[in-house]
Amino acid sequence: MSDTVNRDDGRVVHEVDGIQELDNHLPNWWLVTLFGTIAFAVMYWFTFHVFDVGELPGRAYRREMAELAERQGKEVAMTNDTLVDMSKDPGLVADGAATFTSTCAACHAPSGGGSVGPNLTDEYWLHGGSPEAIYQSVRDGYAAKGMPAWGPQLGGRRVQAVAAYVLTLRNSHAPGGKPPQGEKYATR
Amino acid sequence: MIREPKSSLRADGGRNFVYPADVAGRFRAARKVVFVALLAIYAALPWIPVGGHPAVFLDVARREFYVFGGVFNAQDAWMTVFLLTGAAFGLVVLTATLGRVWCGWACPQTVFLDGVYRRVERWIEGPREKRMRRDRGPWTWDKAWRKALVHAIAIVVSLVLAHVLLAYFVSVREVFALVRQDPGEHVEVFVAVTALAAVLYGNFMWFREQFCVVLCPYGRLQSALLDGDSLVVGYDRARGEPRGKATKTRGAPAGDCVDCQRCVVVCPTGIDIRNGLQMDCVGCTACIDACDAIMDRLARPRGLVRYDSQNGLAGQPRRVLRPRMLVYAALGLAGLTAAGLAFGGRSDVEVNVLRATGAPYVLDGDAIRDALHVHVVNKRSATTTFDIEPVAAVGAEFLVPIRTVTLAPLASADVPIFVTVARADYRGEFPIRLVLRPRAGGRSREVAATFLGPEAR
Q1: Does A2 touch chain B (CB under 8 A)?
Q2: What architecture (CATH level 2) is domain A80-184?
Q3: B14 and chain A in contact, CB less than 8 A
Q4: Model pTM greater than 0.90?
Q5: Do B358 and A149 count as a contact with CB atoms less than 8 A apart?
Q6: Does any CB of chain B come closer than 8 Å to the CB of residue A4?
Q7: CA-CA-CA-CA torsion for B273, B277, B279, B285, nearest 10 degrees?
Q8: What value of ipTM does the predicted structure carry?
């Protein structure tokens, strides 16, 4: 379509149906990106596959999973004492409160005073009021009575956090709470 | 002898940096209005609330998408296929009819470059001749401070544009919060926005028309999308040639083109429109305004360079309706119709029954118990309360501890449900059904699951 092109020097390399293709150079900036990617590929290959300096995503994933497994392996068994200690950790209790609001409050009321589920703020407990018993109730549930097993859904840490939070609710007597159910548990 | 056509790229691979001259005229004025409007829309969309959320808020991190009051999550992504198909064919129809109006009037590359960055350059560095002379000349104090100021402003503008784009993904409030934070607290976002600003700066201060000429696939598709009847910016060869300076004697038969080069110096991609339709032309209309001004001065009719089809420029009649237009339009409408049906028919709640992990069923004395949970996602733009009711089944006893859930937009809940059947009544697997009813009214949803138990004896 261009009538000022006059290629008499033989630089026209193709001509099909009157359409000419010229043998112009590629733009210099384009060549810079091409050679740049080649240089990057070489550096990448040496970094990750020859000298093993870098960490490929697969290996990073395996390392992080191994670290997680190690951390979880070190987790202390849940005894009454460790759970009471946890209930004095403000960060963990705040996490537990958040989970409680989103997950447990539907049945136990946002205050813990109970609605469908029992009152968690009095001295009476259906399945034991010791820290261990509460932790176990959250983790394994009482399916027959409508309490699901939250362990598989929430994971270990969040179950611990919720149990720690529930320990702070004990004997707080939320106003408007449900009448007591179960046996009295005397807190030391 | 080789005469290369005017271009921003040289045959040896070098680049002719383009210094577009100032141009004034009706298209320049209209384009200014369009640019201001588009820039205002770009900046305003994350601020305008529609249905309690920004008009456009694409929360990729949480997979929550708010678009003009519509609420979407990642599960709705399939709808965009139809929308994009419809929009793509819409653009094809537009191109076949009106040529590169998108490129010249609405493309962000053009709007930001012509509407913002080149304005700054023109303001600090002056008109074309001054800019060229200064760039060729030695480094003086005058050149140094002007260059430094232009680039400093360009960097600030790039940072602002990048932060506005960030607001589309994290909301305006979050952008202000992030800006006040130490970058160390959000390294990834900081790096992404800084990199985006750097790309914008490099693109608009250096790369410029190379994007349209070499990179943009839409530009490269023009030769397939345009035909002889599409509107293009073109030069009326029959009227203009033979070009030459206006002579008083009027001896030689001269065309209307006086070869003043105004159309060439105003071109932002550095081409000569008189060489005919070229891929480099982004249809910016600068050469139309430039030529019209010259024609006015010479008291000749306007339109030596004008919006016209190639057939029109060749003196033939123009057709608007062509078979290809109907095909493109039909395909575009099919896409948009499918998208409309998909949007219209989408459910305002997502509900699934899942089996509790661990055991398919539990044997409890004389009873078989299945523990299930219902996953509910509210996809309305307002907080909604849902009632969950089991559909009675013979012999099955339902325990639904949570019968009502109240969910904010795109919030979800897991509702445990226990179904008990006496072992003596169990005759094999059977379906159990639940109804989810929005309290504010609207369609109820029924979901089904299967009650599982041991082999019936």
Answers
A1: yes
A2: Orthogonal Bundle (1.10)
A3: yes
A4: no
A5: yes
A6: yes
A7: 50
A8: 0.72
